[in-house]
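Training component of the fellowship. As part of building independent skills, the fellow (R.M.) carried out the full modelling exercise for a liganded target. The chosen ligand was nickel (II) ion. The inputs are recorded below so that the supervisory panel can assess the work.
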Amino acid sequence: MSKTTDPPSRVSDDRRRARFVLPFAAAGLVLALGLFGAGVFLWLSGSAGAAIGGPFTLENGSGQTVTDRSFRGKYMLVYFGYTYCPDVCPTTLNEVAGALDQLGPKAKLIQPLFITVDPRRDTPAAMKQYASAFTPRLMGLTGTPEQIDQVEREYHVYAAKHVTGPGPNDYSMDHSSVLYLMGPDGRFIAPIDAGDTAPQLAQKLAGLVS
Ligand code: NI
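Fellow's submitted model of the complex:
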């Protein structure tokens, strides 16, 4: 019967080590995610020449066909997401709605577009109801899976289905979250951080739109 006092002290050593190491691990992870985000953002910022955006044919909330050309003469503020999004989409769209209210007359120059990455569930009617709940200015767009694939590729959007259960609707969509400002000629002007608050967004848009 050898009773040792070693295990308790080893446990507390491990705890001490964990207390010491974990903050660094957490900081490293945050830094890595931050660098990834900044990298994506810089990549988008730096590729103004390398075609972001392009022709698309989609359906508005009334089931009418709209194309990129439908918005010529207006700036397009394009955001990709989906109506079942638990968090990021509603937060972003809420800030966009607030920013446009704060922009004053310049808001009339901008058509905000919400394009679904989940066309299977996001029907025109669902998009209309969802978008109009944020602001009547916001137009929700959906389309066939092929049409959505195409516009996602053009805007360099990342979207992937994440299955959460056995049912056909048991899934979420992982997706990139960037606001794209497109000019009145349809060309890409700048990415805008979708994490911005309404006042930050309003200030940026005021500087970019005239
Ligand atoms: Ni979302």
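The panel noted the following from the submitted structure. The first strand starts at residue 57 and ends at 59. The chain has a mean pLDDT of 86.
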